[in-house]
Amino acid sequence: MTSQTPNSPDSSALNLREQKISNGASVLDVTTLPSDARTQIARWPQIAVGQKLWLSYAGTNADDTPYAAQTYDATPVPIEGLPGGMYPNAPVAQLRGLKDGSTLRIEFKVTFDGSTDESTAVLFPIRIYTVKALVALKPEITSVKDNKGVEIPDGHTTVDTTVKLAGTATANTKVEILDGTTSKGQVDVDGNGIWTRDVTGLAVTSHSFTARGLYASNPVSTARRVIVLAALTPAINSVKDSKGVEIPDGHTTVDTTVKLAGTATANTKVEILDGTTSKGQADVDGNGMWTRDVTGLAVTSHSFTAKGLYASNPVSTVRRVVVAHPLAISQSQMNLKGFKLIQNYGWATPGEVIGNTETRVPTGGVPPYIFTPENSTFASVSTDGKVIGLKNGSTNIIVSDASKNRVSYQVVVSNVYRLITSSSAMTPAEANTWALNQGGRAVRMDGLALNYNFSVLAQMFPTEGASGGRWHVPYEGVPPGVRFYWRRYADEVVATGYPISDLPTNRQFAFTLVPV
């Protein structure tokens, strides 16, 4: 520029300085400019009170709009400025809003004759600054989120192939996003120093993201690591009851609490559904395993699925469980008191005797049922719950189901006898003595007992009629001196009580009943 007086100061006399630091530089760092910064105007020859001053600033704002300010406008030279020049306050707040890299122009004018007409003022050498308005911050990646907006901690996993990165850097600059050494594009940093970037098409592998500042010495952020996993379809691999017993698909339990276990993509979540009803969520661990207790199940059929809370929400195959009523059976005592006659003579028997067998089955529980006599000496029980008395006495019948639940009831057996026949014919008196020696007991029995126990009566009574009968000794409930005599007519047997005085004189075979 030019000056209209040879006594004008040179350009070094006009400096924007901090706390009276003279000799300004060509770069003005507004980021470090203190709030009380001043512009130094050195004393010039012929300075005098009454001269008028103009001081103006011109540049470009950060939003690219023109900047202009004037702090002296026909302002008189102050008395304190005469000895060593002036130090007016700089418009610091405005200067801080200048665009980085732009030019700041400071002009100073004086009318030596004290005129207020600026057009007659002498323009001193213009001071030009290059504005530094940026703090070269190291970029940071402060957030990585999946496509549902869920934060992915550093080093953790996701099944999403698109992630949203966000972070900070020097305001109004750019950063470049890198995945390892591969550029994922550039992004603008806003006026608040914030930037975001969607990174798409990520491969199923580990990724290491950094943000590199496209300013200063290209500072680079700390790496932010993300592992992209394949979006596996969840599976329910196990359903167990409260005893830890596996419940196969479609089978039954009496438990109203079951433990589900399965697999899914590691470090995610699954939601457990019973039909369409949510039974809560389960965390999937780093090995891809999850478990969930489902409680309060109603007595009905249940259809469980596991829905992945990731990707497109894949759903597992259905696992079905039927919850039944608890195992139960009548607790009343079972009394088997039909006449059961046991013999070792090879006579044909019908297998079962009326009154010596009964069937009792449970309800609820998980079939199949297992029936077990606590003591098999007294009774036997079939796979369908039919109990047969074997010996006089009592025992318990234990019933268990497939889930190892147990119930029981008592069975009492009576009227089981071993039938013993004499090997020779004898008189009634001899027969009575023989029977007592065998341990025979006085038992009241009608003819149906023999029909029930022996299919072919002729094996016991080879000869039909009175001549082929047998003495039954002793016999309960007959008067003293009376003996019972059994004989067969066709397929029936009848018995007659004979007073001793009327007994036939012929000798006959006898039989007696010994309790078992």
Provide the fold topology:
Layout (H helix, E strand, L loop, with lengths): L13 E4 L9 E3 L8 E4 L10 E9 L5 E11 L15 H4 L7 E9 L10 E2 L3 E6 L7 E6 L10 E3 L4 E6 L5 E6 L2 E7 L5 E6 L6 E8 L10 E5 L6 E6 L10 E3 L4 E6 L5 E6 L2 E7 L5 E6 L6 E8 L10 E5 L10 E3 L3 E3 L14 E3 L10 E4 L5 E3 L4 E4 L3 E8 L5 E8 L2 E6 L6 H11 L8 H7 L11 E8 L9 E8 L2 E8 L9 E7 L1
Parallel strand pairs: 2-8, 10-16, 18-24, 25-32, 26-33, 34-37
Antiparallel strand pairs: 1-3, 4-5, 4-6, 6-7, 6-8, 9-11, 11-14, 12-13, 12-15, 15-16, 17-19, 19-22, 20-21, 20-23, 23-24, 27-30, 28-31, 29-30, 31-32, 33-37, 34-35, 35-36
Short description:
The chain folds into five domains: 119 residues, Sandwich (Immunoglobulin-like), CATH 2.60.40; 89 residues, Immunoglobulin-like (Sandwich); 88 residues, Sandwich (Immunoglobulin-like); 81 residues, Immunoglobulin-like (Sandwich); 99 residues. The relative contact order is 0.07.
Structural class: mainly beta
The gross shape turns out to be rod-shaped
Number of discrete domains: 5
Instruction: Please name the CATH topology of the largest domain.
Output: Immunoglobulin-like
Under the CATH scheme, the architecture of the largest domain is Sandwich
Can you summarize the main beta sheet? 6 strands, mixed
How many helical stretches?
3
Q: What portion of residues belong to β-strands?
A: 35-45%
Fraction of helical residues: under 10%
List low-pLDDT spans.
1-13, 17-24
Mean pLDDT score: 90
Instruction: Give Rg in angstroms.
Output: 57 Å
CATH first level of the largest domain: Mainly Beta
Number of strands: 37
Determine the N-to-C terminus distance.
Answer: 140 Å
